[in-house]
Amino acid sequence: MQQKKSPHTFHIPVMGLSFTIDSPVKVAHYGISSVISIVDDFLVEKMREYYSKKLNLEFKPITTKQPDYRAERIREYLNLIDKIVREKFNGMKNSILAKGSELEKYIEMLPSYSELKQKFNEMVEKNFSTAKIQEWLKENISVGSIDVNIMTKLDKPNYNKREKLPAEYNDAHAALRGFAKSNLESSIIFSAGINPRLYSYIANFDDFYPDENGYIRKKVVIKVSDFRSALIQGKFLAQKGIWVSEYRIESGLNCGGHAFATDGYLMGPILEEFKNRREELIEQNTQLVKKALLKFRNYELKTPLEVKFTAQGGLGTSEEHEFLLNYYQLDSVGWGSPFLLVPEATVVDDETRDLLVKAREKDLYLSGISPLGVPFNSLRTNTKDKAKHELIKLGRPGSSCPKKFLVSNTEFTEKPICTASRQYQKIKIEELKLKNLPEDEFNKEFHKITDKACLCLGLASAALVANNLEPESKEEGVSVCPGPNIAYFSNTYTLKEMVDHIYGRINIMLRKDRPNLFIKELKLYVDYLNNKISEAAKPVSEKDLNYFVKFTTNLEEGIKYYKSLFNGVKNAFNGIKEQIYSELEKLELEIKKINYELIPLKKAVNS
Questions:
Q1: How far apart are CA 212 and CA 448, in angstroms?
Q2: What residue segments make up the domains of the chain, in order of their start?
Q3: What distance in Å separates the CA atoms of residue 341 and residue 494, rounded to the nearest whole number?
């Protein structure tokens, strides 16, 4: 379905494996864009069966015996979602003036400054004919984008019995191929950094290339944590003739899921750099793409290519939303975790949603449960952790690892295995016992081993439980990965309520003590640094010390930036500026204290 300009200034990012697995079916016909994870082809296949049966459509299973089953499952699911969304959207356009219709809801949810909204209301008030309004709608309203996400590093090789398959059958390669062969006209979002082999594979599919007039059927979006990453990844793709249509800037810590922390480089200064250097980025990639298209595809690009700059991570108020859009000149802002509390937009089982409603700051933490070894935002009371602790009590820690999406460890085996698997944890615990450590030390190391959770099952379970589908394993529990910001939302909401909150028409946030998103992220980084220092091996190495010094320097520069920013902005945050300055002063003192504690470590390293 060809995309027009989005009617909304927010989007719903990918969340877990299952939480946004069918979000486009729920929100795309209202013009709201959302992102499906295409990591888990088993879940994708179950959801295709679910919707096929629900809509009385023929369902032919794609079994693991078929040669390219992973790519085919993903392609068929995306085609089904596209079909459902198209039919819902077309049906909505035909419900023109019916009171309480989907079209009325579509128009009501648009921002008040939307030209589309103003024009529609004007046509209704002036009693334009139904045929005239229908004709206008066909030309002007647009569906939300059905985008997909791949974590670039989840690209394990696959085997046919014992024979290793070619690289194009690797997990991420096959997922990319499934999207590339689908009917969608939308974007693929790459997260977790550059994967040169995967990025090179994109060149095999014509849909990713711009035509002579600049139209791209399937767009590339990269999720980045800083400008340098955008430069490197954008250039790599541009040299192959692939244009990056959007740079999605995400907070290192104030977000959900895996947290890819920077070295203390904060969201505000990062967005400022993008604002000041975006033309440099666009010009560099434009020249490279033009040259590559001429060289590899033998045509000259005639029109400039479109590029968006968006951001996400920790948004909570309409004032923050408008500020990011206007001050940093962004095209859209992502609202993730709050939508976990909107049943009309995401799929979350009742028990987990209730836990999220009740969650407070102490319940949300940066955990070590991910088998990837990357810090992972988690909820302490999640049901997957409860099930995991029961297995530990029974003397059977670890998962049976039926899906193997996160296998990466070759410490004990030739083929990679998962650190959350029973196989790995059993061997690792036996090794630990042989060390004869003191009890406290043993318990600490034992916890590090058994803390890993099977996210492949845990992050997929919510969709199965919520839709009463057969579980994929006897292993119970739902993992959930909200950002810290969800602590400030304390109810479930309708889709319209959440959208009205984003646009400032209502306020659903009852708590008055929520910090500004920049201050919250700064606090998270100070806590993160303190934990890194306390966990560092003693005596501290020169490498670790240099990292700590660089980190504190970046935090200090960030505080200077925020003091200048909030002092210079006259029409935003006026009601909370005093509180912001007070928080900045407190955090500046904390960083000075950290620097003071680093002095003896510097002396020890230099002696």
A1: 54
A2: 10-341, 381-479, 515-606
A3: 9
